[in-house]
Every structure is written in C-alpha cells, then in structure tokens.
C-alpha cells in the first residue's frame, strides 16, 4: 500500500453487507472483527446494501427491510462505533443508483459476462440465462458504491478480487473520458483469516444451510450448536486417535481460542488419542459463550431502543450522502450533465 | 383508448429526444408537429434524454451538453409551449436513474436480449457483444422515464412498440411485487404519418447520413437541399412520364403541401409526362420556405436569450422532478426501502 506516502489520498474503506438475515460467526471472523480494528486507523464506511439485496429478493421484499435494523444491531453489538465508522443505508443515497446508471455505459455486456464472481454467483443461484439484469450489472453498482466514497481499500475475500478489478477498469475508463482523475482506484484488502466453515463442516456458513451460529444466539442456542459441531467421524472412542483436518471444533478453536499454546497441547492430545470430543467441545463452548455473551448483551441493550438505532443510521446515511453527492456532482460535471 | 372513461387516469404523454444534434424535418413530421397538437388535450412531458444519449456518446460528451439547448430551441421554435408542455432534462432528475436501478431486477438478461428494438439498434450500431451494458439495459431506463411520470401514452414509431411492451411487463411485475397498482401501463401512440425519407431517398433522414433539412436551416440551405432532393432517375426529359414511387419531392409534398387537390393535379401531370422536376421542386421549396421561415425566425428570437431558454428548462425540470420524486417515493416504499 502506498497510502503512507504524502501524495496518496488518506485511506478510505468501504465495506458492508446485504441485509438478508442476521449476521453470524462467519461474518464475525471474515469481516466484522476487522472493521472494529480498521475504524481506529481508517475512515470507514459500512453499507447496509438493501437496494443490492433486492436483486434476488424481489419476491420477499419485507425480508430486506426487516433485516436492516437487525444487521445494524449486529454492527453495534460487535463494537462498530458510529462515532468512528459511518454506517449507511444504500437505498437512501440515490446518487449510488445514478452513478451505476452512468457506469453501465463504461462496461460492456461481454465484460460483465466474463466476470468470474458474477459467473460463480449465477451458477450458485441456479439463474442460468434467466438472471435478473440487475444481477449481471451488479459490478457497475458495486463500482458506484466504492467510487462514491472514493474508497481506496475494500475488504473482500479472494473470490471477490475480480470485482475490484472490474471497478478499477471503470475508474480508469471514466477518468479517461473525464480527462482528469476524478475517481479513485481501490485495492482489495484480503483478510488473513479466511472463511469459517459451517457447524456441519460445509465450506460455507450460511443461513440458508442452517449451519450458522448467529451473533445474537442465546446461551442455549450456542450450547446446542456446539453439540452439533462436526468433528472427526472416525473418532468413535475416546482412545481412538483423532483427526484435525476438516474438524470444525478445532477450526473454530483456531479462529477464536486466544490460548494458542493450550490449543496446541489439546490438538496433540487429540491426535495421539485419549481425548474425547466432549472435552474439545466444552472448551469451544466456553470460548464461544465468552465471545458472544457480551455481544448478545450489547445487542439486547441497543435493541431496547430501535429508534436510537434508526437515528444512528439516519445520521450515518446523511453524512455518507454528502460524500456521495459531492462525487456524483463531479461525475455529472465531467460528463457535461450540469446546466443550472 | 379507454382514457375517456371515468375510472381511467387522465392521459399523460411522455416523449422526447436524445440531444445529439439539431432536429430536422424528419423529427417535425414524425413527432414535433404532433406534440404541438397534443399539448392542447393532454398533459405532456417532453424529455431531453441527455443521460440516455451518453450510452453511445461517451467519447464525445461535449456533444450532448451542447445539443441540449439547441434541441430546446427547436422545441420552442416549432411551438412547443412551456406553459402547456413540461420540458425536462433527464439527467437532472436522478429519480429516473433510481427507478432504472430497481427495474433492472424486474427484467431478465434473456428478455432484454430478445427485445427486437434493442437487437435492431445493436445491429445498426455494429456493437455485437461489445455493447455497453447501458445499451442492453436501456429498456429498463425507458421504463423508468415512462413510469416516473405515470405516462399513459407514448408516441413512438411502429419499430418502438416492443419497447412499450417491455415497459408494461415491468409495470405488471412491479405492481405484483408491490401488491397494488402503483405504476401505470402505457399505450404506444403511433402517428399516422410515418417516417420521412432523407433528401437522398434513403429510408432514414439522419444527421450522420447528411441527408437532412434542419429546422434551423437558412433560406439558402433549404434552397440548396431542395435542389439535391432525389426524384425519378428515369425522368430525364420534361416530356418523359415521371414516377412517384420513392420520389422524395412528392413524398415531401405529401407531408407538407396543404393544397391536396393542387398536389394531385401536379402528380397526374408528372406521371403523364410534360412536367419538369424543376416545377415540382419550386413548389416544394416554396412550401418548405413558408414552413421553416417562421420556425427559423422564432428560433433566432429565442436564441438571443439562451439564459431564458435555460430558465424554461430549469422550471420544467423542477416541475417534472416533483412528479418523478412522488412516484419514486411510492416505489421505494413499496419495495420496503423507506426507513426514516
């Protein structure tokens, strides 16, 4: 990153979530806990991508609306601080749609179809050719979100890197058309810890697979989930040697156990044989209860006054909109779409 | 039209032009003179589609900006009256981009690719697969323009009827999602007089073909253009029988000559033989000078105070924006995108 140099703009992060359900441990590991760190060093915008979420939720529009406040509660509960992070609701900043509209002229259909992330998502959702147009064009929308805030860093998984490249292509094409550098290129910020598997051992933790532990889970729900955690199917008796590969209990301990030495000793014992799953799970449960207990408590506290949460979103959105409106104004002027 | 019934909404017309060059006789016959009539009976919105025009003018953005005022001058010159017609600039109503964004979720890529108008335009422009995404998705943008003003009538040529059908599909899908009739279906209003050929006899009168007579043409330019008008290549001597088919001089007379009887006599004489092209062209020139003289004079008058023209556009746009904002608000609420 050249962000430390004198000439580079101050680093700005854009990140966010599609509010389609409660956030879970996977979000915590993959993004939320990083945001809590980032807000100390960077200007950070966290976007509730409700308009984007509609792309494949047109048949259940209430779901997106309901989850905006739920996801905001998750944000506040994990320690995203509205004083240091600007939390915004995408749909309430129409400039993002306006920029999308312009950027659609800067990318070809063929290029969108080649986008590996779009390809994979189309496959994953089983859309084939009957994809909503908004789905094919969502890289332009994402480019609008990133560039509106002149974000220089976008935290994404490895699989999302092509989306950032796509954004930067649009940035370069726009700046060429504008004949000056109005938009800013962004860099992917890929977190060190990758994706957390579901409690069933499936690669992706996902609400639709029912293999999540939500951030707002009760103590009893955490307890029940840990009991279901996939371990080693060959580890039938306590005396059997256990395997660590694909063992979700240990993968979760890797992600959350602060006592790395103690964890290593536990692993050695497990592999040697003579250590029951119940001991491992007990340790995991303790750690998860310790992690999620305070989060749940803060979440419940914030949830008592949803009016206050909406006020936080309103203020964050207004602040973010000022930035987006400024960028959009520059874009409009550069395109000659300014008259009065 | 059921617009006369008690329950149907009052008829609203949306029409407009892409401001990429001065308007010409083809526009006059195909649309402008109808608008002057429509404004007596309908609520009429005339849109300068500058944002839409960018789709294939990203490499020459100044052109669109420059032509907004030129086309507005053409409107005022032909008698479109800002007191009875709301003239608006598309890009200054960001709600149109916002609606486009939502509508992209209501139409599939496959459906857009099947749109005959889009197909034909893609072929015409030689885009192939390298079309800008904004070009493929422009039916969603057009649906936004039409529905934002709850237009019930859209004057279009035969070839544009599929675009109206596409809009109505989006309207029906949206209303189903919203579970109430928020958007209004539109009807194509196909004018009786079809397309005027170019002076060279080519089917389309078009700036890029250089076969137009502009509305602001000087007397000398009109005279020179009429001299070039394509007639009957077999009509070599005055005494030869002449042909009317494809004879642009007569096609123009059909469109503009108010003396239908005199015109019929002229045609008979021409077909019989013994009537020179020069006589026909003299008649045509007289009629065009009579038609365009006052238009040119009004155009020059308005052009003296472009500030006033911009004021007209500003007021029309503000008025139109109120309507579009109202519709967009209803759309946003129906999609659950309303929070504060």
Which assembly state applies to the chains in this document? homodimer
CATH class membership of the largest domain in chain A: Alpha Beta
String of helices and strands of chain A: EHEHHEHHHHHEHEHHHHH
Q: Return the average pLDDT of chain A rounded to an integer.
A: 93
Structural class of chain A: mainly alpha
Largest sheet of chain A: 3 strands, parallel
InterPro entries (chains A, B): aa-tRNA-synth_I_CS, aa-tRNA-synth_Ic, Rossmann-like_a/b/a_fold, Trp-tRNA-ligase, Trp-tRNA_synthetase
Pfam family, one (chains A, B): tRNA-synt_1b
GO molecular function (chains A, B): tryptophan-tRNA ligase activity
Protein name (chains A, B): Tryptophan--tRNA ligase
Please provide a written account of the structure.
- 2 copies of one chain form a homodimer.
- Chain A is mainly alpha-helical and 340 residues long.
- Chain A has 2 domains: 12-196 and 306-334, 3-Layer(aba) Sandwich (Rossmann fold); 216-300, Orthogonal Bundle (Tyrosyl-Transfer RNA Synthetase), CATH 1.10.240.
- The first copy, chain A, has 14 helices and 5 strands.
- In chain A, the strands form 2 sheets. In chain A, strands 1-2-3 form a 3-stranded parallel β-sheet. In chain A, strands 4-5 form a two-stranded parallel sheet.
- In chain A, strand 4 (153-155), helix 9 and strand 5 form a beta-alpha-beta unit.
- In chain A, helix 3 packs across helix 13 (277-303).
- The first copy, chain A, is elongated, with a radius of gyration of 22 Å.
- Residues 1-5 of chain A have low confidence and may be disordered.
């Amino acid at each position: 990153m050249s962000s430390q140099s004198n000439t580079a703009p101050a680093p700005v992060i854009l990140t966010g979530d599609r509010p389609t359900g409660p956030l879970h441990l996977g979000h915590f590991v993959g993004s939320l806990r990083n945001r809590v760190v980032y807000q100390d060093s960077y200007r950070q915008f966290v976007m509730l991508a409700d308009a984007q979420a509609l792309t494949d939720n047109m048949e259940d529009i209430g779901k997106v609306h309901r989850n905006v406040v739920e996801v905001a509660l998750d944000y506040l509960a994990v320690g995203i601080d509205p004083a240091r992070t600007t939390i915004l609701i995408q749909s309430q900043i129409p400039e993002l749609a306006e920029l999308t509209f312009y950027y659609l002229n800067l990318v070809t259909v063929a290029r969108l179809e080649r986008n590996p992330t779009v390809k994979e998502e189309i496959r994953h959702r089983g859309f084939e050719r009957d994809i909503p147009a908004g789905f094919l064009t969502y890289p332009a929308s994402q480019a609008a979100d990133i560039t509106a805030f002149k974000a220089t860093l976008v935290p994404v998984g490895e699989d999302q890197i092509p989306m950032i490249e796509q954004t930067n292509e649009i940035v370069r094409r726009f700046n060429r058309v504008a004949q000056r550098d109005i938009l800013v290129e962004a860099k992917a910020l890929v977190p060190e810890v990758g994706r957390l598997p579901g409690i069933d051992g499936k690669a992706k933790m996902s609400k639709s697979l029912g293999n999540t532990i939500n951030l707002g889970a009760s103590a009893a729900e955490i307890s029940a989930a840990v009991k279901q955690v996939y371990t080693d199917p060959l580890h039938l008796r306590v005396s059997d040697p256990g395997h660590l590969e694909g063992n979700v209990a240990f993968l979760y301990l890797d992600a959350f156990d602060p006592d790395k030495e103690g964890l290593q000793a536990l692993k050695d014992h497990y592999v040697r044989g003579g250590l029951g799953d119940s001991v491992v799970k007990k340790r995991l449960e303790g750690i998860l209860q310790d992690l999620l207990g305070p989060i749940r408590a803060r979440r419940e506290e914030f949830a008592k006054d949803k009016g206050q949460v909406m006020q936080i979103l309103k203020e964050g959105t207004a602040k973010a909109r000022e930035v987006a409106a400024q960028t959009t104004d520059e874009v409009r002027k550069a395109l000659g779409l300014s008259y009065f």
